[in-house]
Amino acid sequence: MNGFSATTRAKLDFVSVHDYSTYVDVNHFGKPLIATEVSNFQTANDPSITDGLKWANMIAADLKRGERGWIYWWAVNPAASTSGEGLINLGANNSYTVNKRLYVMGQFSRYLRPDDTRILASSSDSNLVAIGGKNGTGRASVVLINNSTAAITTTISGLTLANVSGRRTSATEDLAKLTDMAVTGGAITVTLPGKSVSSYVEF
Fold it and tell me: Is the pLDDT of residue 83 over 80?
């Protein structure tokens, strides 16, 4: 990018970035950013929620930084590979395993959609990461990451519709449907299990 002329940079619709190690900030070029390639091919595959939380926090950080999209490198890891490069790992005799990172990605992709506007979402608890968005009709969604091993009870405020539905991924849940909740005074109170990712959307 630094080697491009100003004329060449002006012709770019967006800047494609990868996030494999140290992040280099290219926001100063004034172009939309999209993370088009991210994975873990350096180490053995970790199918657990610990690995899932790693990617959840990375997605949230990238979106908060202003990136417009986030793409994991491989959907399916071939049976010959044992790395963390895929969302799904093939095994022998047509068997396969699904890694928590796939369900964690779903917590974002199901609720924060293309053309949504990211809105301010934050928490005073350092263990809790929040990121929110609104679609064209004003319907809000929020993704909450509990990095603590303990459950956290928190209030989601600023809601405008009557009800909220949600899903959660944890050590024992895979995009599990949660009980719908009624909004009272523009807010709901939820308990987030330790090491979990929960998503809520108004309806």
Answer: yes
Tell me how far apart the alpha carbons of residues 57 and 51 are, in angstroms, rounded to a whole number: 10
Q: How big, in percent rounded to 5, are the helix, strand and coil portions of the chain?
A: 20, 40, 40
- Residues ≥6 apart with Cβ < 8 Å to 108: 56, 59, 63, 70, 143, 199
Using CA atoms, how far apart are residues 149 and 152, in angstroms rounded to an integer? 9
Tokens of residue 44, six digits: 């053995």
Q: Which residue type does 13 have?
A: D
- How distant is the alpha carbon of residue 99 from its chain centre? 15
Cβ 1 vs Cβ 17: under 8 Å: no
The residue to which tokens 């929040």 are assigned: 130
18 in Cβ contact with 26 (< 8 Å):
no
pLDDT tens, 14-63?
Answer: 988 887 777 777 777 888 888 888 888 878 999 999 999 999 999 999 89
Q: Tell me the pairing of strands 176-177 and 128-134.
A: unpaired
Rounded Cα gap, residues 96 and 88, in angstroms: 7
